[in-house]
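Below: protein 1.
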Amino acid sequence: MLPDPRHVTILLCTLNGAAFLPAQLASYLRQTHTNWSLWISDDGSSDGTQAILTDFARSHGDAHDIRLMQGPGQGGSAANFLALLGHPDLPPGVVALSDQDDIWLPGKLAHALRCLSDTATEPLIYSAQSFYIDAAGRHIGSSRPPAAAPVFATAMLQNVLAGHSMVLNAPALALVRAAGRPVVPFHDWWLTLLVTAAGGRAVLDRRRVLLYRQHGSNVMGAPGGLRAGLRRMGRVLAQDYGQWVAANARALQAVAPLLPAPHRATIVAFLDAPRRGGPWRIALLRRLGLRRQGWRGTAAVYLAALLGRL
């Protein structure tokens, strides 16, 4: 099989990642797909992160275009990634998102490109699975793929695609750039929701393509296990969850011209309805077709709606 000629721009966001960053940078160099450049947005690191990045660019800048820029300085990783995706000089084409503390397996980019048709005109967003490792690099588990790739009706209420393995095709990147930089809680949830709301498609790869490091500073951490499941249930029933969903919905409403009419109508109906608990709120979700994957997840959001949390 001939190598894929498509260029990939790796988008790396960093903040005080010196402890694990060298292993991630080294994993880019081991990729079987070698046609990549690296754009880095550092959000004000105070450790050795910037020195590591500068040295990496100096050592490998002849073979790859490596650019280091300053992040927005507030808003966390979501704002940092959206700022990088919206950078005015970012070239069109395929982009791969990267966390600072993971390790990519050699075929990661090649697998993603095989899953993303180079002739697709619709926005496509790809995500794959991972092996979990601890701070010392020891294997501690594996991710479980969701039951199905998300669609708009499920992406409204659930984030199931892993941002650290996301790859967007050129139409998806153009869509994200057209949508600007909304204030949203999680960039991966927003990207999935925007692509599916605009009529694009999520591509779910069940391969494990990277080592996902679990340590005390993870923003979210691994989603597996009973404890994590109970934690997710608690989030759904807490006030934060309803605020996250509403923030995403408002961000979609702000870019309504990018969406097909049925999805625009769903967003308007969801946001215009009074947010108070009761059976009527469950009826609204059912009428709009909004749900989570699996009956347990859907039951949880129905309970949240009944209690006025959604």
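Below: protein 2.
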Amino acid sequence: MNQETRKRIIREKERLYLTGVSPSTWWRLEKAGKAPKCFKLGPSAKGWLISDIEDWISSKAEGEV
């Protein structure tokens, strides 16, 4: 994946599609420091860097906890 693509911001719907983790479970994982934290895009909008999500998925596939 090129550098530009890795900087892309994704929203909740795509995060859910990529990870398969429900919003409430993801929230708990974020709070526990076990998943990438979102950042604010506006008053009620949040997002993640796709690179952070893909790295998290890779770590799970490799068996890291």
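The chain is about 50% helix and 10% strand.
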